[in-house]
């Protein structure tokens, strides 16, 4: 016998209840204003010097740890090893996100009996790279549900689910080898239409801007997607200290692998010269420009722990630093650094040890690197510090790569609305640090 259908009154009640629930849900959605900004805490891992964060993704939600990659086109997440989610969707060829990706491959076919995350037909293929190996793979672009924390710029706010989900490329086990412990992929924040900042900005309707404040200690720093305010204790609104310089395009990709004619998604700025203690260093100006092959220029990177300079630039800056720092006593080198000094007798200032200042000239403005960002303490005695800049080689693709140590305790704001980069130089000047965000959830 067939199961008896419910009595008419019962089904009417059920329909009314459903109607009521969906109205209540719609009410909730409309009565809650969209968040103006999204917050991610960022930690530096001492073993790998990678900056990591955790997002909650999939259905059911699971925490997914990712290494921050400032210049990558899109986030990527390992889809092998038990990716289970009822809301996983491949980005199909011709769909909105595939169009926003601009460069893609739509020829892929997956020869498996059944589709699964990372293996669907007619999907928008993208390259994803692990710059630490370095290697790249080709994977399908996808979306999945994600829940993130909103913020008013002062404290964490309520959690919000991202309308339409977040976009990422499906990665594979081998790509995760050199990532921080338990990291499942990388958080691409580059200047593309499918990077996390772009996707969050269009999902929530806030400006395509984000502030990044990396901590120099074990305490968490922050990335805040959306415009300021960005408050750090004790009550400093730090976006007021930003100075801006244009973000300039590089027409040729600098990634491990890319499509033909694909531009770079990295953030390049126009460094036109370098001074040490106010004195100009003589450099080959051609190296500071980005040439037709996409070589040269200056970019920011969170996957390089220390700034890299092409060999001739490196030599010239080191020579100038030593000339200005005659009072510093050299000690033996400690890898990866060449120039190390005895800290005994070196004065200390609000912005770190009293060493020559390195100034990146940016047309109208300049970014000064003070002791806290130029020097790295090595060993446990506190007696040795090294100049935290590394020789990038004579064949360096990008002449200057500003690395993590030089970005720490500086607020940088990527402003894609005005195609400019805001930077504060050292926040220690203003008696605060990137570890000073108030992570207490406001009542
Ligand atoms: C993809 O298409 C090919 C060729 O039509 C088919 O053999 C294969 O089963 C499909 N794969 C999936 C995962 O649907
Ligand atoms: C970089 O600055 C130099 C010197 O001011 C200028 O000539 C050049 O056009 C700038 N490059 C870009 C891409 O804006
Ligand atoms: C640094 O200098 C002090 C004082 O001259 C000396 O005692 C110490 O051993 C030196 N440390 C190193 C690492 O050279
Ligand atoms: C951090 O934020 C909470 C919630 O707004 C507030 O009660 C607390 O006083 C703040 N802490 C500091 C040190 O300002």
TrEMBL record:
Lineage, top-rank taxon, reads Eukaryota
The identity of this protein, by name, is Uncharacterized protein
